[in-house]
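User: Structure tokens for this complex, please. No commentary.
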Amino acid sequence: MIINGVEIEDTFAEAFSMRATRVIITAINYKWARHAAETMTGFATSVIGCGVEAGIEKVIGNHETPDGRPGISVLLFSTDKKTLEKQLQTRIGQCVLTCPTTAVFPGMEGEDQIALGKNIRYFGDGFQSSKKIGDKRFWRIPVMDGEFLCAETTGYQKAIGGGNILVFARGISHALLACEAAIDAIGMLPNIIMPFPGGGVRSGSKVGSKYKFLNASTNHPFCPTLKGRPDNVLGKNIEAAMEIVIDGLTKEDVTLAMYRGIEAICDLGKSQGIEKITGGNYGGNLGPHHFHLREIMNESYNRYI
Amino acid sequence: MSLTTVTYKGSTKQRLDMRWLSQAINESTNSDTAKNLSLQVGNEKTNVGDVFDISGPLSNQGVVLENSNPSMDYLGHALKTDTELSVKGDAGHFTGAELAGGKLIIDGNVQDYAGCSMSKGLIEITGNGSDYLGSAYAGAKKGMSGGTILVHGNSGNFTGDLLRRGTIMVVGNIGDYCASRMIAGTITNLGTIGKQVGVGMRRGTILLPHKPKDVLTGFHDCGRHNLGYLTLLLHELRQYQSTFQSLHPMRRRVQRYIGDTTVSGQGEMLIWIG
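Assistant:
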């Protein structure tokens, strides 16, 4: 399959099951809400080393947030409920509680709940108070600018992590151009985050390593400086490969994101130095969710557009 | 939705224990069975059918009680979720006591202990409430533990005595000793309030439009604040058709007093400002 001169390889991107939650951070203005959200989602690129993958999902208007203030929606993904809960509380406690004027609300409903302010409340040293409003409990923790308001729990659900697109280009600038176009397109979608810096990844990893203490290592078949090796997959014209990793709440969300990303890259076309799009295929060793690129580009068009 | 109508056709001045009605609604009893239920009226034992007309099955599809009067106690007692009882006229003591999720609408006034020990659901009183609204049974350690009481008129003394959880909304005035021994929960009104507000209060919120004439010495002024949770609370209060809807949804600035410190309480009395 070739779209606008860009080859779509006949392969699939491999993704794995995760647990995800969403919280809504509000503040007196977007500036402070963003400070809190960016801090909370910092050092949250990969579950391999960070415990959780997190990112800003979208900006929420005053009229949509529970307390009528500017808000930002944040998604967090982890491999299991326990880690997700721990990471959420740590990050809320260190990054949002500390940020002036903020409040935190649950971004997911449902029976499956994890603690949000349930344990953070102890920071109140006995001066905290709870208020049950409707069927939700909120904690009010006295802080130096007034009160930190935090819902007791938030919902979580099954999700998919590690959906991806790999771009092969004639140079770094071409690869970056392609990634930025895709990231901008994907960033418009709900229920999706791209947890790596700016959404792009240059250090794509393969499963396993020659070193026993590592379970992931550089994806050497995609490294241009190793093109001379027999297992390298980059062609002569390709000098840079880059990856966009996508975490989504459902398979449909990831599929749509991949479609929009590939579409944006192909819109630039071969004339912009983009040679090929492929996916991170680890032979089925990484996870059960397989996103076949050509199927996505064939079917998604009819399904979502 | 077709409503079942229960009409009181008696004229006794004796008190009537109306727990049979809630029980029949909770158990979706048909009208014939309900009419055969025994009922004590004064020192006479009679059947429900002798005193009430029942037009259909008593179920969760909505029941209307016509011609009620202040001698009818325990109306709406322990109604469960998804049940609704609408009372046309005044009601007696213990109205909505132990309500467990149903909706009870009183188109009139109620007497003492309305909503006492209720745990869930809604009691709406278009007239006035009386003493011990949303409180505990005499001798019990905990009062209302959930749900909402909305009074469109006034309420009496000891409103929310020993309140544990839930919201009491009074459009009009509240009598003396409001929120006495309050454990938690919320009491709010739009009118005046009597003496000794929050005496013995441990936790919870009293939200008032005006500062009481005599703030107890156990309450300490914490200054003026914008409290974010008030937006959420207002959203909750404004969902009911009442004068509370006139409050601006983003109003959040209050004068805050904490107390009652004479019992090491950390409750709060908030006075709207601005």
